[in-house]
Amino acid sequence: MSRKIIPYILLIPTFLIIIIFIYWPAVYSFKLSFYRISPFGNRMIFVGIRNFKNLFHDPDYITALKITAIYVSVSVALTIFASFFIALLLNMKVPGTPVYKALLFIPYAISPAISGTLWSFLLNPVVGHVNYFMSKFFGLRVEWLTTKPYALYAIIIASVWKVMPFDIIFYLAGVQNVPDDLLEASTLDGASTWTRIWKIIFPLLSPITFYLVIMNIISFMFSSFAIVDVMTRGGPGNYTTTMIYKLYLDAFAFQKTGIASAESVILFIIMTIVTIAYFYFGERRVHYQ
After folding, report:
1. Is 44 helix (H, G, I), strand (E, B) or coil?
2. pLDDT over threshold 60, residue 1
3. N- or C-end of the chain: fewer Cβ atoms within 10 A?
4. Alpha carbon 42 to its chain's center
5. pTM > 0.70: yes or no
6. pLDDT digits over 211-230, tens only?
């Protein structure tokens, strides 16, 4: 047997798994988006683009689009900037830094469902720690999970807490590789700490920021399901129903297979457009060393 063929033979199991569990479901979902499934699941009726038209005339789906846009944009911005500043603090030579790093990286090892459960306890209006401190110091007691707009704030907080360690790892590695002589020269030129951070360090880490923005958008778009399901179940009044959670409700709760498939196609198209647009416009601001 030729040595050139052996690598392809070894890759056959990987290709089979990718085709069976990724490409085939994607193609089948695209096909189902043009059909309506009978209530008993024994007939597929071709309806063309009617599923897509129905979605964009559905006020609940329009609300889910708006909520997703707000949730993803706010979460990505908070995660990027909070991770960057925490990485700067971790890079400082202070006692106990390894302990702080270990504590900060723990959330990334926790599943989104567990993250949602933990924050449900912390934000509990009666016995939650957050409300305890707020009532003690500010005299406030907030119904975090059942009132507007606090329910959306709650899932943003839980999501950012879950994803932030991933970003911190990359930013910390980048900050540690910033040339010391460059920072020393800027100090001698009279640059303040704030100037060094925004004019030197952050621009030098633009390739990392570029990568993390894309990864965070994907993470918040798709991984939000477990957190929303555990914490608010899309409430109150669909106020925290994101696109991925709306897809789940239509597919499994309401058995609208054709509508749910159309939603998955729309989600794929949106992610493709956002990624291409960000690569086209965002990469212009990236400075590779």
Report:
1. strand
2. no
3. N
4. 36
5. yes
6. 899 999 989 998 889 999 99
Query: 14 lies in a domain?
Result: no
Q: Is residue 35 in some structural domain?
A: no
Q: Which positions ≥6 away from 244 have C-beta within 8 Å?
A: 68, 221, 222, 224, 225, 267
Residues 6+ apart with CB under 8 A from 189: none
**CA dist., res. 178 & res. 253, Å (int):** 51
What pLDDT, on the 0 to 100 scale, is given for residue 66? Answer: 95
The CATH number of residue 210's host domain is 1.10.3720.10
Whether 232 contacts 155, CB under 8 Å? yes
Residue 57 Cα distances to 10, 52, 62, 267, angstroms: 49, 9, 8, 17
3-state secondary structure of 255: coil
Where does 177-205 have alpha helices with state H? 180-188, 193-196, 202-204
- Residues near 144 by beta carbon (within 8 Å), at least 6 away in sequence: 123, 124, 125, 128, 130, 131, 150, 151, 153, 154
**Structural domain includes residue 164:** yes
43 in a domain, yes or no? Answer: no
Sequence-ordered list of residues with C-beta below 8 angstroms from that of 224, at least 6 positions apart, any chain: 71, 112, 155, 159, 242, 244, 245
Please write the tens of the pLDDT for every residue from 137-172. 888 888 999 999 999 999 999 999 999 999 999 999
Q: Which domain holds residue 248?
A: 51-285
